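2024-03-11 09:14:02 INFO queue: dequeued item C-terminal processing peptidase-3, len=445
2024-03-11 09:14:02 INFO validating residues
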Amino acid sequence: MIRKASLLLVGALMGAAAVTTLAQVPFRVSDSANAAASDTYRQLNLFGDVFERVRSDYVEVPDDAQLIESAINGMLTSLDPHSSYMSPKSFRDMQVQTRGEFGGLGIEVTMEDGLVKVVSPIDDTPAFKAGILAGDLISYIDGEQVQGLSLNEAVEKMRGPVNTDIVVTIRRDGVADPFDVTITRDVIRIRSVRWREEDDVGYIRVTQFNEQTFDGVKQAIEEMSAEIGEDNLKGYIVDLRNNPGGLLDQAIAVSDAFLDRGEIVSTRGRNSDETQRYNARSGDLTDGKPVIVMVNGGSASASEIVAGALQDHRRATVLGTRSFGKGSVQTIIPLGANGAIRLTTARYYTPSGTSIQAKGIIPDIEALQDLPEELVGRAETKGEAGLRGHLESEEDGEEASGSQAYVPADPADDTQLKLALDLLRGVQVNSAFPPLGEDQASVPN
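2024-03-11 09:14:37 INFO prediction written
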């Protein structure tokens, strides 16, 4: 499943969205861990010694619980950008947020070089309306420096009572000086799926994968199919651009909506017995209508699972720019009254057995947006490979990350959308659309 932050614990990164699952079994120690040399555990005495020295000699009386929480979070964040500790409050907030409603500003965030980085503003939220852009760096929150705060601490400061103002200081590529933006907090109700008829084409926009996403996609297909009419309907566009991810089960269900059979995704942990495969059930909700999936540099995690599954099965043509490249799974492990940890426990693989970690989904048809003058040269994301401490790719070749992530607010200016519509209507022709039949796909038996 995925994670988000403040604003949307979508997953991993809260930043990139991460695919996340909730641990359903007791914590277990692997055989290899049990066999670890005893002197490794004796090193824990060092922590105890430092802890006691801080308690006794620090210039002010420290908060013991805060010290321990910071130590745990430091251990986890040293592993990769997506593992972290969640306090009891953060854990409760995460559980609420994955249901699709939470309080905050409406941005997906991660940490980069000690600052809060905006992965994506969520449609129709206070941050979106205030003009916050993907790639913006938040350096101050209500005048307090972000440097030195953990992601969870920064997110907590951005939360607050509804209808109260918060001032965030933004550093933006291409803008010489930092500038302040005042945002009024609100209850963020995430409608993860929106849709509309584009004359003879059904357009489905998925902004994240929360508990309502599959139901929203199903409703969109049913309503537009009835409204446009089966005979007139040319096909569907599934827009996953700037979708940071979400719940793994919802990504599987959305993929299944367009597939009649075959593997959707597999996850592989450190041990071979931890491999899990998820397969489609019979029944394509679109009755085989042509599908184009749009992705860009802000499409991460769960959205990459959907794009990869439909691409590998030749069920859809993927159009846009290279996706974010987050190919890891985070498991939420509850710690009773002490919150939970978000731990990277597996990599996920597309049906062809490909890991997109630090590489991303390469579109079948690359299409760039026409950028406004003020965004030329600064409309790209760094992607997973640009995150410090990221898991390395298992695939041959150099890691590649960072691609255009701009989506115009006005559909009339959306170059990628126009191309997708023209392809479905036959106005333009491309060898990648329609894709080869599924029997041509390189997928495991």
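2024-03-11 09:14:37 INFO annotate: Residues 1-17, 439-445 have pLDDT under 50 and may be disordered.
2024-03-11 09:14:38 INFO item closed
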